[in-house]
Amino acid sequence: LLGMTVQFNKNLDYQKQLKLETEKAEKSIRQSVSDIAHDLRTPLTVMKGNLQMLRMEEGLSDKGTQYVDSCMQKADEMREMADDFFQLSLLESDLEEVERKRVDVTERLLQFLATHEAVIRTKGMEPEVIFPEKSIFVLADRKLLDRMFGNLLNNVFRHAKGDRFTIRLEEREKAVITFANEADAPESLRIESLFERTYRGDKARNGNGAGLGLYIVKLLAGKQKAHVEAQLKENILEISVHLPLAK
């Protein structure tokens, strides 16, 4: 019996040590990903700037312009991927501080749309904005809200069919913010898996970025004691964030 107890304690100590080593390795990997993503952003920005200057050069042939445009697109995709991985490493490591305060989410969304109006027009898209007449106040972190809105808008840019999308704000038991657009390939969507990090849907992992946008939205919501939902209604994909109301 004594021998069994000694062996049990040894196994327990081994499991504890193994867990500590695994956590240490995971932390090291996250830090490495964060460092690499951070270091990539500056040269990619310089690359994009140089390509823009090259495009304005006189005498550049049509074929040369096509090559430059293709390189600029790929530089944008790489920059978005670096941003996604950098955000993810911060969120999963719990290094980012969250400061939940009373926020007028109606005003915050309007400011977000005003700031991104030029980008939306450049993409050739037109939003339908459905807001209540009164302001809705939530308990949230302003910075995380903006990042969540940005990821939801990027998801529309990447996967919407057509040039129209909807942003809707409602007050129910919680404040509900919905970004809705016609899905480009609704038959390929697995709604129950959209917010999973490992989701590999045909369309969800194509296009710009690392395909982590909705997973990051889920993490950002969770840090603010909110939750996310997705549903498909007659080929219209709706991504909703449910935020706690401020008293």
Report what the structure shows.
The protein is of the alpha+beta class and 247 residues long. It has helices at residues 2-55, 62-92, 105-115, 117-122, 142-159, 213-223, and strands spanning 101-104, 126-130, 137-140, 160-171, 175-183, 227-233, 236-243. The strands form two sheets. The protein has a five-stranded mixed beta sheet, covered by helices on one side. Helix 1 packs antiparallel against helix 2 (62-92), helix 2 (62-92) packs parallel to helix 6 (213-223) and helix 5 (142-159) runs antiparallel to helix 6. The longest helix has 54 residues, at 2-55. Mean pLDDT is 83; it is low at 202-210.
Summarize this structure as a short list of keywords or feature phrases.
247 residues, alpha+beta, 53% helix, two-stranded antiparallel ribbon, five-stranded mixed β-sheet
The run of helices and strands is HHEHHEEHEEHEE
Strand tally is: 7
Largest sheet: 5 strands, mixed
Radius of gyration computed on alpha carbons: 22 Å
Uncertain spans, ≥5 residues at pLDDT below 50?
Answer: 202-210
What assembly state would you assign to the polypeptide chains in this entry? single chain
**How large is the count of helical segments?**
6
* β-strand amount: 15-25%
Topology, element by element:
Blueprint: H1 2-55, H2 62-92, E1 101-104, H3 105-115, H4 117-122, E2 126-130, E3 137-140, H5 142-159, E4 160-171, E5 175-183, H6 213-223, E6 227-233, E7 236-243
Parallel strand pairs: 2-4
Antiparallel strand pairs: 1-3, 4-5, 5-7, 6-7
Helix pairs in contact: 1-2, 2-6, 5-6
